[in-house]
Fold this protein.
Amino acid sequence: MLHPDRFFDPEPAVRDIARTLYGQVKDLPLVCPHGHVDPTLFSQNRPFPDPAQLILIPDHYIFRMLYSQGIPLEELGVPTADGSAVETDSRKLWRQFASHWHLFAGTPTGIWLKHEFGVVFGLTQPFGAKTADLYYDTIAEKLASPEFLPRALFDRFNIEVLSTTDSATDSLEAHKIIRDSDWNGRIIPCFRPDAITNPRRSDWKPEIRKLAEVSGIDTGNFAGYLRAIENRREFFRSMGATSTDHAVVSPWTHRLSESDAKTLYNRMLTAQRTVDENDAAAFEAHMLMEMARMSVEDGMVMQLHAGSLRNHNEAIFKKFGLDKGGDIPVAVEFTRNLQELLNSYGNNSALTLIVFTLDETAYSRELAPLAGHYPAMKLGPAWWFHDSVEGMTRYRQQVTETAGFYNTVGFNDDTRAFLSIPARHDLSRRIDCNMLARLVARHMLEVEEAVPLAKALAHDLAKEAYKL
């Protein structure tokens, strides 16, 4: 059973205020401005697969923990890149997961799944090896019912808007089907151009060719390449998109001269070997400047996610491909790296730049001071490895005194796991209410000030920052 005071401070004075604040926000609609849910779930609106296929196999939060304890990914049903054999017995996979449930004690994954199991599926017995089949059968039975179809759950979860993340060359066919249906759920795309702006990727040149095909613009030269990107941004906006998203290891920004940008693009496009790292870094830095320029012109919110070294485990990447739990945080510098972009566009209210990091040491040292000064810059919430009870608490402690609350953008769930969205928002609301309650208990805020702040953090800031 889920305790009604979970995540609140045990100090009675704080807990009582937190309860009051949470009561004001717990039923607010969910604004989901950034995530990775597949839009075909809602265009097709078909029943979800069995519990293992739905909960275990796609979730790198789960299988990376199991892998860390020596369980091969093949034994967890994770598909291989070459199609070689893996375990396909879903009940066996589920029992394997259940017998290792103790590994998730104290983790955000454990917290989210307890909410899923208890609130979404109505299960009240403790999960583990002894109840594995009970859980499997109960979840499977519910997933077969009309009440658990994707659109029905979207409505049940009280989601006001959900943004997916889509490649710049995507046809957005699923979004077209949703928009043309008689269902009124609001699901919008987000423009993700990494495949066409990061020359290190093995698919960069094919994606440049695809960009030419979908835009109808020749990308054989740099000017055409930029026009093709602008064309795709316009298309995404016509489909409801309000934001772009850019993932980088380093947030270095630098504008090349027009001639140097053309020369660099041509050199990389015609290179027969792997692109030189210095060339790739310079091109990516220049393209962040171009993306900021385009956002000033078309009004799309620009998200920048920095600090993840992707595919650290080469053996896993080669055998299983992307997003298999091998992405690891690295230290990131922002003050100098963002200086050129912010000096060019940071004083312009037409730009909204939302910055995320996996390097917590940058919160109070760099990010809060930057967001507390430049009108265009906002701080994204605690991200990925820090989307947790202590991670969200640390985030608020480190940024609030310098950036305040209104230079942040509330919460976003940033997940592929659709059924975990209510759990993630509930956790965030409880942590923020508890943090505000501490300020009230210390007489740094009045309750009358804390109530609208709780609502802003739970709902309003995300809606406003992402222009939803």
Notes: The chain has two domains: 12-47+151-465, 48-148.
